[in-house]
């Protein structure tokens, strides 16, 4: 159960480290530095692509292999925005962010990221990431609810 707002504030140093962690994903992928994914994810991380009709990927090796398998279909640029960090009592933090992917042909797609990050001996790492495509305005709402 989430804590009250005053109990879930994240220390500035941790907040900045988590935001940088989430931001580095795009740099590593866009640069082809997939050998550095261990700097972003725990060894047993789950990369949930269920909303794209795919099975979740388990482990850094599976995440890396999936990126290599996409090859030229990968976006040429990943942009992360609107990063919001909240902490929970078990030492994990939840992170919501938006992502834009620009393809080589100039087309663009948008996703929402829902991450669980954990503090490890090597710093913050993503242990769970869920991607949800953004395909309809207003979250699919058509009238006030």
TrEMBL record:
InterPro entries named among the record's database cross-references: NTF2-like_dom_sf (IPR032710), SnoaL-like (IPR037401)
One Pfam family of this chain: SnoaL_4
Segments forming domain SnoaL-like: 11-130
Protein name as it appears in the record: Polyketide cyclase
Lineage: Bacteria, Bacillati, Actinomycetota, Actinomycetes, Kitasatosporales
């Amino acid at each position: 159960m989430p804590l009250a707002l005053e109990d879930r504030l994240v220390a500035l140093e941790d907040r900045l480290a988590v935001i940088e962690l989430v931001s580095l994903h795009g740099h590593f992928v866009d640069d082809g530095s997939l050998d550095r994914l261990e700097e972003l994810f725990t060894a047993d991380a789950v990369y949930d692509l269920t909303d794209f009709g795919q099975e979740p990927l388990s482990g850094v090796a599976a995440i890396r292999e999936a990126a290599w398998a996409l090859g030229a279909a990968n976006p040429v640029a990943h942009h992360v925005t609107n990063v919001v960090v909240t902490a929970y009592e078990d030492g994990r933090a939840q992170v919501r962010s938006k992502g834009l992917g620009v393809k080589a042909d100039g087309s663009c797609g948008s996703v929402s990221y829902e991450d669980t990050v954990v503090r490890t001996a090597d710093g913050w790492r993503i242990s769970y990431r869920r991607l949800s495509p953004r395909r309809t305005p207003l979250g699919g709402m058509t009238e006030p609810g």
